[in-house]
Amino acid sequence: MPSMAPIQNNTSGIMGGISHFPAPEHKETIAPLVLSEAKAAALVNLAPRTLQAKRLDGTGPAFVQLTRRRIGYSVEALRAWVAGQSVKSTAEASVKMEGAA
């Protein structure tokens, strides 16, 4: 009967000794304070044009005027707006939509 010697780990191959490489540095991720219109629209699952229309008629989320031509949305404002859009029935949604028009 052949002897059953333990299998030795060969660390001389391409992947060998990989544990000797230094661990990659973990870079801190900083969340943006303000999202672009396109990113904000994607976050709330709306088209950017719909978000623009809601901003113009005053029914959209609060926004930040960054420059004369650039606006943005804070994640907090988007969350608050979405929470304010929540309804419990289609009847309640209809009343809410009629009130917005």
From TrEMBL:
Record field: compositional bias (Polar residues): 1-13
UniProt superkingdom: Bacteria
Annotated stretches, region: Disordered: 1-21
Name under which the protein is recorded: Helix-turn-helix domain-containing protein
Organism: Acetobacter indonesiensis
